[in-house]
């Protein structure tokens, strides 16, 4: 078998067995250790630094994003996953208010500062990494789940908003987003839209 044939075979096996081929944004967000464990796969796409120190740094950032994803989930299921949302509405409202007051500024502010400090293009500088793909999905998901709150907050994270737009215009991502492979946000995923959790955030008042 020639080298070209072998390369084609490997790419085919990845497309069949590797969900990141079909659902790249989903996998980047869902499995924070996946890009690091399969570093060679990420390098093929140029989505991770080649230097080992850079690899560990972006992996650390991805784990931070995983922490944020867990807290996003807890806004609608603060007591337990075995209960329906309807069984924990009151705690969910309280958890969501605290999440937007304390946690969102901390998490998104951290990544906003990183993008700004590294030139305003991507988190690591001039080249996109799998962390940037995950941040795209975070911004998209929060816009879906909390449209009013996110609209009010986005003035605090202009660089992240621009990063989201920059990722969306990447040719492969753009094609993916317009294809049937893109799984729409819904009330069975991490990002869920419940109108009662999306009250307008008021900076000057106690209510949110």
What descriptors fit this protein?
0% strand, 208 residues, mainly alpha, 63% helix, disordered C terminus, globular, Glutathione S-transferase Yfyf (Class Pi), Chain A, domain 2
Outline the secondary-structure elements.
Elements lengths: L2 H15 L1 H4 L1 H7 L3 H4 L1 H6 L7 H25 L12 H29 L12 H16 L1 H7 L4 H11 L2 H7 L31
Helix pairs in contact: 3-8, 6-7, 6-8, 7-10, 8-9, 8-10
Please provide a written account of the structure.
- The chain has 208 residues and is mostly helical.
- The chain has one domain: Glutathione S-transferase Yfyf (Class Pi), Chain A, domain 2, CATH 1.20.1050.
- It is built from eleven helices and no strands.
- The longest helix is centred in the middle third of the chain and has 29 residues, at 89-117.
- The radius of gyration is 18 Å and the shape is globular.
- The N and C termini lie far apart (64 Å).
Briefly, what is this?
The protein is mainly α and 208 residues long. It contains 11 helices and no strands.
